[in-house]
Amino acid sequence: MVRLVRSGVNQREVARRYKVSLSTVSNWVKHSAGQRLDRVDFADSKPGRAWNRTPKRMEQRIISLRAKLRDHSILGEYGARAIQAALASAGDNQALPSVITIHRVLHRYGMLDAARRVRRSAPPKGWYLPAVLAGDADLDCFDFIEDLKIAEGPLVSVLTAKSLHAGSADAWVMPQRSADQAARCLLQRWQRDGLPNYAQFDNDTIFQGAHQFADTVGRISRLCLALDVIPVFVAPFEHGMQNLIEGFNALWQAKVWQRYRVASAQELQLRSDRYIEADRLRRRAQAEQAPARRRLPSGFKLDLQARLRGQMIYIRRTDPRGRVHLLGQTFHVSQDWLHRLVRCEVDFDRHVIHCFALRRRVPQEQPLLTEIPYWRPHKPFKGAP
Fold first, then answer.
1. Count of CB atoms within 10 A of residue 345's CB?
2. Is residue 116 part of a domain?
3. Percentages helix, strand, coil for the chain, rounded to the nearest 5?
4. Rounded-to-integer distance, Cα 235 and Cα 224, Å
5. DSSP classification of residue 195
6. Reported pTM
């Protein structure tokens, strides 16, 4: 390196070429200044102790104080703060090191007892549904972006959709949210793309139905059950399960809503349609490799008064007593599975609820916890037809 510098190569270029710091090259050049390279003792080029490092005497005192406090402290405290307090009580106020300095000294000598937090990788998307995790089924996620204010115009909401494996997205601008209009949007999407195996929603009443009455199943849920699509309602405030649709919501707002100034909901829809078309074109190869979808039955018409058939899934977290709340009722799952995630599969054909244990650390293992008998009374749908 010194030979290259003496030949005219810039020190920064030499440091980049040999993957060392610029200060290392500069130190070696100064150390060998005015000498032949074959007579320079490069072993003596190591810099000395940093000028601002804690004195050796103070480091030894910190180490000895830690050992003393660990063995004789009444409180049993021998960390950085306890050592600083002991130094202050001994009258060393002039050169009293800070808490972070004491911590660094302890770290330098390997005297920290606290274990570092283990960071585990997140589970794959859709891990709580075995068929989706295996890649045998696709999942459509739906959500609302609420209260977007058009300049000198009305407030609007946007219903968004995103499929997990196919990656196809949609967005519909609505002057006012309603379950009926949302159902029309779902039918429009599934008419074009085909029916997924699962449709995921949050716990909004637009999707799930009223919360204050037991055994209530809303319009969107009935639409999914009529088409043999399993509706999935994820647990509120659970991280990760809504990342797919929440990520698309943020992307749509950045690339459409915040990018253009629109004067009406119709103009916003046109801008959104252009973006969705371009996004689908980019993800065409991904959509071709996704699991196959069923066609929407021709002439399909939703009967809101028909008896419920099929399954609904609720992802819930048990309470301190091992219970979960769904369908306006509370069900006991397991006394040994407290504050943990469960997948509750409501089977309307067999009149039973199967509850499976979920763990992010081992997403492939989902043992059955319990079977709960559940007979839903046939309640007529009271919404608008």
1. 17
2. no
3. 35, 20, 45
4. 19
5. B
6. 0.72
Both tokens assigned to 378? 């046939």
Quote the Cα angle for 320-326-332, to 5°: 45
Classified as helix, coil or strand, 340 is coil
Provide the residue type at 228 as one letter: D
What tokens were used for 171?
């967005």
Q: Are 148 and 169 in contact (CB under 8 A)?
A: no
Say which DSSP state 255 is in.
I
Q: CA-CA distances (angstroms) from residue 322 to 24, 38, 60, 312, 330?
A: 61, 77, 53, 21, 10
178 and 307: one domain?
Answer: yes
- CA angle 317/321/327 to nearest 5° reads 50
Q: Are 311 and 329 in contact (CB under 8 A)?
A: no
Give the residue ranges of DSSP H helices in 32-72: 56-72
pLDDT value for 245:
95
pLDDT given for residue 112 in this prediction: 85
Residues 379 and 21: their CA atoms lie apart, in Å, by 75
- 202 and 344 in a single domain? The answer is yes
CB 44 within 8 A of CB 35: no
User: Which residues have CB under 8 Å from 359's CB, separation 6+?
Assistant: 340, 341, 365
What is the rounded (10 degree) CA torsion for 98, 100, 102, 104?
A: -150
Domain match, 190 and 98 both = no
Domain hosting 166: range is 127-385
Q: What whole-number distance in Å separates Cα of residue 110 and Cα of residue 113?
A: 9
Strand partners, 199: 140, 231
Least Cα distance to 310 among 340, 362, 351, 272 occurs for 351
Residue 18 has pLDDT above 90, yes or no: no
How many domains in the chain? 3
33 and 132 assigned to the same domain: no
Between 14-28, 157-171, 221-235, the lowest mean confidence (pLDDT) is in 14-28
- Per-residue pLDDT tens for 51-85? 678 888 889 999 999 999 999 989 889 999 999 99
Pair (172, 201) in one structural domain: yes
198-201 and 139-149 as β-strands: parallel, antiparallel, unpaired? parallel
Q: Give the Å distances, CA to CA, from 231 to 224, 267, 277, 315.
A: 6, 32, 26, 11
Residue 113 lies in a domain: no
56 versus 92: which is more confidently predicted? 56
Two structure tokens written together for 364: 């492939």
